[in-house]
Amino acid sequence: MAMLQGRIQDSGFRIPGTESRSPGVAALVAASAIRGYQRWVSPYKGYVCAHRQLHGGWSCSEFARRQILENGVWRALPGIANQFRECGEAAQYLRRRRREAMLAAAGASEHAGVLAMARGGSAKRSLEERIYEEGEEKRKRLNELQGDNPWWVGPEWRDGCG
């Protein structure tokens, strides 16, 4: 690990405000694990970090990686927990906004469905059915990407961070 630490220092990499100290071994291991997640898992999971999508800037994983390198593992945890909480709130907001947009867009088509029924035709699928089916399709694609053992994405992480 000392060799890895030396390589980081030799590369000219400096974390702002920490010129006098370099990241510890635990921070380097954690940052490397996060980088592996960013490289090998995140691009294939099918959704993006809600916090980044709503506010711009870093994703939650990049925020966590930088906080760990700047402050160490233990000092970074409160900030990371706060970021994940905000990301969950952003995911709820985006989900609500998307649903409202779909309802507004479907207003005309629902009206057309009622007219079709009045003329003896069949109404289109309800908006609730379309939203449910779209979510099922996304879950199905995600499960196909993950295989039989989705160890990296538990149900508690599906609502936000990436």
Provide structural commentary.
Helices cover 67% and strands 0% of the residues. It has six helices and no strands. α2 packs antiparallel against α4 and α4 packs antiparallel against α5. The longest helix is centred in the middle third of the chain and has 46 residues. The chain is elongated. It starts with a helix and ends in a 16-residue tail after the last helix.
What is the topological layout?
Blueprint: H1 2-10, H2 25-40, H3 50-55, H4 60-71, H5 73-118, H6 127-146
Helix pairs in contact: 2-4, 4-5
Approximate shape? elongated
Number of strands: 0
Helix content: 55-70%
Which structural class do you get from the secondary structure elements? mainly alpha
Characterize the main sheet. Answer: none
Core attributes:
single chain; mainly alpha; 162 residues
Summarize the structure.
This protein is an all-alpha fold. It has 6 helices and no strands.
